[in-house]
Amino acid sequence: MKIHHKFRALLAIGVLFIAIVFLLFVFFATQTALDLWDRLQQLSDWLFYSYISLIAVFALFTLWLTVRLLMPTKFHKSKHKKLSEENLLKELETAEAKGVDTDAIRQEIQTLTERRDAGQVYVSFFGDVSTGKSSIIKALIPDASIETNVRGGSTQEIAEYTWQSPSGDQLILIDLPGRSEAAGSLDEIVHDEAVRSQVVIYVTDSDITRNQYEDIQSLLQYGKPVIVAVNKVDRYSKEEREALREHLQQKFSKQNIRLALISSGGEEEVIKIYYDGREEKVLRARNPEIKELADALQTEIDSQFETLNQLRDASVFVLVKQKLDQAKQAYRYEQGQNIVKNSTRKAVFGAMAAISPGTDLLIQGVIGSLMVKDICKLYEVPVRQLDIDKFLDFSQGQLKHSVPLILAVAGNGLKAFPGVGTLAGGLVHAVSYGIIFNALGNAVLKTLEQRGSLQPAPAALTFKELLGENLESNAKLFARLVLEREVKSKEK
Ligand SMILES: Nc1nc2c(ncn2[C@@H]2O[C@H](COP(=O)(O)OP(=O)(O)OP(=O)(O)O)[C@@H](O)[C@H]2O)c(=O)[nH]1
Ligand SMILES: [Mg+2]
Fold first, then answer.
1. Is residue 265 lining ligand 1, measured as CB closer than 6 Å?
2. 138 CB under 6 A from ligand 1?
3. Is the pTM of this model over 0.85?
4. What are 430-445's pLDDT values in tens digits?
């Protein structure tokens, strides 16, 4: 209670103090301003106006700078950097010369060339399962035979249909499998197909969900035209349709999206009444209302016919670049694993050849150093000997407390093989070095992959983490290697 009272008193003093300081500041500021004004009045006209203009320019500049800093960055039509075809092809050739597997990328470029030569506009239908993508295509091209299915998941493969639009444009309509149906790898295939086309029609059969909104955003990032087709609006009243339209227009007000509310038909159940009063439930095709979509598509094509191909090409280049980066990464990882494997074998066999293994496990500097250098060279990361030494040193420090455990696990790994008999210390050490070098190499790989440079301390921590992972299975792996080598050397 007392403290509470004291605190209030202190607070009151604080408030008084701040009030006095503030009043003093106001007095001084007013005085200075008035003084300054008096003096300015005495200046000649041109000096007076020059001074005022200078202050005004400075104030406006500060205001402009503040607003610019606070304003959100402008919406960019395409998030991806423009890639030149020439540079991309050069990068591809360099990767191929190294041995990177680029078959999928070459295929992508081949498809692009074919589509360019054919000169047709590719329109892909993207969206969740059973939203009516196939039904829309069927409504546009009544002669095309498309399976539509009430249970959803009816389109399992990508199908293409040629459609001549009312104004004579040759379009290829691509029917894609539904989004959530297309699990895992197919999802990627569907996404890529949407990227390859010039116009994407995003089909939904209700208000846009969060996932769908994100899907649309990721498609927009490629900078290509997206039409959102809200299908099955026959289920809504006229008022509901208009409310939905307004709501979606607002949702996408900042984006360049065309909206079409349609009904692609599908089938409806009706009750047929016969003359004799008999009733029967029958399925009847619903009359499609898709003019709004056909018009939106036509407007999109007419308004930017020239740029459609450029936009498509640019987004395919982004796709190619992404695939190339992935292929390079996979290649590097594989090569990195080979380096680790070879260095580990060297360390294991080196330990087997040593006559007295001692009781400690010392990271063999020469092999370790060479391994790190080779991995860094593969990742094109410059590295100093000093950093390599530090990394090996720190790793040795991390290893200290784990030595008894590693030796024990290595011993158990060897004993798992029948007929091993009494274990020579050298063999246990050799298996231990297998475990250690494997973790060491993988720590360097992981660090370069994640950080892009070899930082000794974090890399050594990663080493410690990896050392504890899969200890037993690694022990068995290297025990097998050691025993096979042992058998071979006895046979000689
Ligand atoms: N009420 C109503 N139902 C429709 C409409 N259009 C399609 N359907 C029904 O929706 C269901 C799915 O239609 P599909 O065309 O197979 O849908 P999809 O998007 O191609 O489906 P997946 O290929 O499996 O992703 C079918 O039962 C259609 O009859 C429509 O305008 N209104
Ligand atoms: Mg379908």
1. yes
2. no
3. no
4. 899 999 999 999 999 9
